[in-house]
């Protein structure tokens, strides 16, 4: 699972709000369970968090843990 790191274009827009990512605190997200496709850029954690919430991306994507279980995930 190798990826190539390239700096995005100076005018790259946030996938959520459309702001220029370098006007803020940019975040690059890449889905490496699907051949590490093209990166998606967000201008800050607020846009990333809202995007994840609105698209239900957390549902079913986390391990389940119970304090009664011996094995941790």
UniProtKB/TrEMBL annotation:
Domain of life: Archaea
Name of the featured protein: Uncharacterized protein
């Amino acid at each position: 699972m190798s990826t190539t790191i390239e700096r995005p274009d100076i005018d790259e827009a946030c996938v959520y709000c459309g702001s220029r990512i370098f006007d803020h605190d940019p975040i690059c997200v890449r889905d490496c369970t699907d051949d590490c496709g093209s990166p998606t850029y967000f201008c800050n954690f607020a846009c990333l968090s809202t995007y994840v919430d609105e698209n239900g991306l957390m549902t079913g994507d986390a391990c389940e843990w119970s304090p009664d279980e011996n094995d941790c995930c």
